[in-house]
Amino acid sequence: MTPEEQNFMRKINAEEKIEPKDWMPDAYRKNVTRQMSQHAHSEVIGMQPEGNWITRAPSLRRKVVLLSKVQDEAGHGLYLYSACETLGISRAEMIEALQKGTAKYASIFNYPTLTWGDVGAIGWLVDGAAIVNQVSLQRTSYGPYSRGMIRICKEESFHQRQGYEALLVLAQGSPEQKQMAQDSLNRFYWPALMMFGPHDSESAHSAKSMEWKIKRETNDDLRQKFIDQTVPQIEFLGLEHPDPAIKWNEERGHYDHGDIDWEEFYSVINGNGHCNRQRIEHHVAAHEEGAWVRDAITAYNDKKMPTKQKTWRKGYLI
Ligand code: BYC
């Protein structure tokens, strides 16, 4: 190992954060950029399924809560894009990769939101799964990512609670409302488990990401945590568990569970989910509609800032 590599590994082993100006292996930079930019894309694309219900929220209170949550997701995307830019990639490049399909976003957002119950299920299950993952990522080795996660987790816990509460009201309502809650649980439970990624044995990036402490817990370990915490939540709602194989295993101290449909997972991440095309088309349209805002910011910046400080490219501060 070169002295630079030795110092990098010393920091990783000593739980010191890697900061933007520190030396880091190219493969580390590439891997954190990949994960963090895809995380940012997930936050931004993730606004669409819930945004679909803002105009149809069942009460003013629900509408205000949902608006606030969706705005939070935009904020999470912005923190993460900014944190990712510290690695030397511009926001324009990240967005181009998303729109061209070379960068992924969480598979869950390619499922449609058919009923109001789905909005509750997203808050409860999708944000709930995201929290399990992101609490672990608070200890990621890249400083800006770790600090971003600490802030994001605080907001996510409100998201999870509002979703669970919305489903609780449905589950305690009329038989039709309870059925709506059950149907949303049935459709979102398995895709929520897929959010943790493939099995560890199939995960291309896990070994290196664990060694470099980019990831602190493996896909399967985090998924198991989520499965375990969800069982009593389903019981409290008085709903049926969508997995008939779910069973407490005294010896393991965890729930055993049925198999995930990995064919479905790979089909969705390869672009063939219900909504993949719609999500990207919508993002492209919104991005084009917003071009005048970026142009206006660039023009304002050109006018106001001394030449030396001008660090804008294609409408983004870099
Ligand atoms: N969906 O080697 P692996 C939110 C890809 S948003 C799509 O295990 P890794 C919210 C993976 O990228 C919060 N793709 O990868 C927002 C890789 O492909 P590439 C979202 C997936 O990175 C709005 C390949 O499969 N949270 O909460 O070690 C409203 C091999 O996988 C998925 C995050 O983004 C998937 N589910 O581990 C509501 C967390 N799984 O890049 C809520 C941050 C895997 O080689 N990300 N792939 O083309 C992570 O923790 C990790 O990236 C993952 C995957 C655990 C997801």
Q: According to CATH, what is the class? A: Mainly Alpha
CATH superfamily: Ferritin, core subunit, four-helix bundle
Number of strands: 4
Looking at how many chains there are and whether they match, the oligomeric state comes to single chain
Keywords: Oxidoreductase
Protein name: Ring-1,2-phenylacetyl-CoA epoxidase subunit PaaA
GO cellular component, one term: cytosol
GO molecular function: phenylacetyl-CoA 1,2-epoxidase activity
Write the layout of secondary structure elements.
Layout: H1 3-13, H2 26-45, H3 47-51, H4 60-85, H5 91-100, H6 116-137, H7 143-171, H8 175-194, H9 206-211, H10 219-237, E1 247-249, E2 254-256, H11 262-272, H12 276-289, H13 291-304, E3 312-313, E4 316-317
Antiparallel strand pairs: 1-2, 3-4
Helix pairs in contact: 2-4, 4-7, 6-7, 6-8, 6-10, 7-8
The chain binds benzoyl coenzyme A.
Benzoyl coenzyme A binds at residues 34-35, 38-39, 42-43, 46, 73, 104, 106-107, 122, 126-127, 130, 133, 194-198, 203-206, 209, 215, 219, 269.
Describe the structure.
It comes from Neptunomonas japonica JAMM 1380. Keywords: Oxidoreductase. It holds the Pfam family PaaA_PaaC. It is an enzyme of class 1 (oxidoreductase). GO terms for molecular function: phenylacetyl-CoA 1,2-epoxidase activity. This protein is mostly helical and 318 residues long. It has a single domain (3-314), classed as Ferritin, core subunit, four-helix bundle (Ferritin), CATH 1.20.1260.10. The protein is built from 13 helices and 4 strands. It has helices at 3-13, 26-45, 47-51, 60-85, 91-100, 116-137, 143-171, 175-194, 206-211, 219-237, 262-272, 276-289, 291-304, and strands at residues 247-249, 254-256, 312-313, 316-317. It has a two-stranded antiparallel sheet with strand order 1-2. The chain has a two-stranded antiparallel sheet with strand order 3-4. Strand 3 and strand 4 form a beta hairpin. The protein is globular and about 65 Å long. The two termini are 33 Å apart. Bound molecules: benzoyl coenzyme A. Benzoyl coenzyme A is lined by residues 34-35, 38-39, 42-43, 46, 73, 104, 106-107, 122, 126-127, 130, 133, 194-198, 203-206, 209, 215, 219, 269.
